[in-house]
Amino acid sequence: MSTLSAIENAVCYIEDHLADALSISDLAKQSGYSEFYFQRLFSAVCEVSLGEYIRCRRMSIAAAELLNSDLRITELAYKYGYETPESFTKAFHRFHGASPSEIRQQKQPAKRFARIIVSHSTAPLAFHVSKRQLPGFTLIGTSCRFPISESIYRDDIPQFWKQCQKDQTLQTLIDSSADTLFKGIAACCLAADQSHLNYLIGTASNTCPIHSASIEIPACTWLCFKGSGRLPQVIQQAWHQIYTDYFPASNFEPLGNYDLEIYPDKQMDQSAYPFEIWVAIKESRNI
């Protein structure tokens, strides 16, 4: 199943089951990817997290039902999975900026969150793509374990990078990365369990002086996407284009386990910072 087909199928399933208990495990199983990778894929393609998308759609539909039906607020709360009317009202107010009663009385317009339409773009690729077959290697460096949440990519991981830059960890890793598989440092994100992930910043150098954590990367085929721009926006844009533009038009699909972001220089505030994204791949089942 292509990356876009996996997300489109998930969106269709979500729309048909907004009033049911939606399981990330079931959605991921339909896609053929792990729960962790499927959530990353959804966020990259839709530019909103899976959990936030479901909540926003429920709040949008709930407001429409308030205006077009006689359902009580208590009934809507239980219908959309809230344990109490109070918790539903708080979530509703956070989304709409008004209480359910105010929306029903039309004292304030309801906020609308439309269903996402997943489509393939024909925009030109903003990076150079090459294919590499590499033996297995070990990433050595420093890591942090994070609970999987909607703030992890927005707050937690950027804060980890700032700390590594402040304490000179990034400089030490970059200085020890010469003559390895890549220039600079790599970031790798792997599921630790169903609710946590391990995020490692490291190098493939055997002489790395920082060895608090390591990840064994098996031999596989990689697609390497090379581009430049201002961080972190350019990385987010690149992931979006990789999944929505490149893979749907290619004969490959991600393995769904190992991805690397390569950063060659510690000066990350450059307007045209050079970067690479490596995605472990396999031949597409749809060719």
Automatic annotation (TrEMBL):
What InterPro entries does the record tag this protein with?
Answer: AraC_E-bd, Cass2, Homeodomain-like_sf, HTH_AraC, MarA-like, Reg_factor_effector_dom_sf, Tscrpt_reg_AraC-type_HTH
Q: Tell me which residues make up the HTH araC/xylS-type domain.
A: 8-106
Q: Which molecular function term from Gene Ontology is one that the record holds?
A: sequence-specific DNA binding
Question: Is the DNA-binding keyword given for this protein?
Answer: yes
Q: Which residues form a coiled coil?
A: none
Q: Which PANTHER family does the record associate with it?
A: RIGHT ORIGIN-BINDING PROTEIN
The protein's name in its UniProt record: AraC family transcriptional regulator
Identify the species of origin: Dielma fastidiosa
What are the top taxonomic ranks of the organism?
Bacteria, Bacillati, Bacillota, Erysipelotrichia, Erysipelotrichales
